[in-house]
């Protein structure tokens, strides 16, 4: 079995991006990635923009493909949107900020979905922001807060519904939030955020490439046509950059096309000894009943075979999957952790019916999912 691609925390991961941008703006702190000094900077995260996909479809992204690439970066584990946004927003690996999966047990023997910040109850998503306060679940200051505290004018530009979301509060709090609806006002708000006196930092987010990859598959015609629109978006933003401003474009993960989908909800062998199953289809947290860890580990390794890397929590932590752990984070990680290989997705047809049907998935430790670009344009780029 080939080895997983381990995240390069501390040197070349998504967690190093904003600290390096802050250093370029003159905010005291580490600068692991070399960026030129600037007055203003925008970090635009394109959800689902993986290095391998961009290279394969460079003809559909002529502007992006000619930008200087200081990457590729690894995004961390699991390679899933809320984990990656928390790493970007805090400058910490998952073990540091504590968002260790799409869903995980925060300590009360039930799963918290940190993308929606909800729990499933009677087929509905029940808000958990009062019970599991985002600023408590992830208490570290964000990079946006650190920039604002140093006098930088900070703006976050993202879909309007994200304004008070649990994930925004946990990972990207700080500065002024500007809600947008489409590509046009995203570009306009980024331009406005960088224009004006003094040091300025803008975080921008766009999600549609990821959506089409999930529904149609990465690299399909709908996905490629969306990539063309994003290429135009980035070239439009770059054309309006002030001369002393920097634009950094990156992604939160790549994506694979599913060709095998074993179903936990119909497999009694996999269910034996499991009290909770968190994570997502490519990265599962397996919480076991008392005394069942060894049996569950052996069973999952046997059933999944070469379709997954299956290890204990201690093995995953020791191997560096999550990076150094902060206080109270270890218990959020499953007793057993399963990272899928190839085109395998371990789905839940009953508990996660919509997710189970997605053609494109991500979350694991393959290069297709882990590697994202770090595209830079502006002074000295």
From TrEMBL:
UniProt cross-references to Gene3D superfamilies, sorted A to Z: Alkaline Phosphatase, subunit A
The organism's place on the tree of life at top rank: Bacteria
InterPro entries: Alkaline_phosphatase_core_sf, Phosphodiest/P_Trfase
Name the UniProt record assigns to this protein: Phosphodiesterase
Species the sequence originates in: Pseudonocardia sulfidoxydans NBRC 16205
């Amino acid at each position: 079995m080939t080895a997983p691609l381990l995240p390069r925390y501390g040197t070349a991961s998504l967690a190093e991006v904003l600290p390096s941008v802050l250093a370029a703006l003159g905010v005291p702190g580490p600068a692991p990635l070399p960026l030129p000094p600037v007055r203003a900077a925008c970090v635009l995260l394109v959800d689902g923009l993986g290095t391998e996909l961009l290279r394969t479809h460079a003809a559909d992204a002529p502007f992006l493909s000619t930008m200087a690439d200081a990457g590729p970066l690894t995004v961390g584990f699991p390679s899933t949107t809320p984990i990656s946004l928390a790493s970007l927003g805090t400058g910490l690996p998952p073990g540091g900020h504590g968002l260790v999966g799409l869903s995980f047990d925060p300590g009360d023997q039930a799963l918290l979905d940190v993308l929606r910040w909800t729990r499933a109850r009677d087929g509905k998503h029940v808000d958990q922001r009062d019970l599991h306060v985002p600023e408590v679940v992830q208490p570290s200051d964000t990079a946006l807060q650190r920039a604002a505290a140093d006098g930088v004018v900070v703006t976050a530009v993202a879909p309007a519904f994200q304004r008070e979301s649990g994930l925004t509060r946990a990972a990207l709090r700080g500065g002024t939030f500007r809600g947008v609806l489409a590509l046009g006002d995203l570009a306009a708000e980024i331009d406005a955020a960088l224009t004006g006196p003094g040091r300025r930092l803008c975080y921008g987010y766009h999600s549609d490439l990821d959506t089409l990859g999930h529904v149609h598959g990465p690299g399909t015609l709908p996905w490629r046509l969306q990539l063309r629109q994003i290429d135009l978006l980035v070239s439009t933003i770059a054309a309006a950059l002030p001369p002393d401003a920097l634009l950094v474009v990156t992604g939160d993960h790549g994506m694979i096309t599913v060709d095998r989908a074993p179903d936990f909800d119909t497999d009694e062998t996999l269910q034996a000894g499991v009290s909770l199953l968190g994570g997502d289809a490519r990265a599962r947290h397996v919480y076991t009943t008392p005394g069942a860890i060894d049996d569950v580990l052996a069973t999952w390794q046997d059933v999944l075979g070469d379709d997954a890397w299956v290890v204990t929590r201690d093995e995953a932590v020791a191997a560096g999957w999550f990076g150094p752990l902060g206080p109270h984070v270890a218990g959020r990680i499953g007793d057993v952790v399963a990272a899928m290989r190839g085109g395998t997705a371990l789905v839940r047809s009953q508990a996660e019916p919509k997710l189970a049907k997605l053609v494109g998935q991500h979350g694991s430790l393959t290069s297709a999912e882990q590697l994202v670009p770090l595209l830079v344009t502006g002074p000295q780029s």
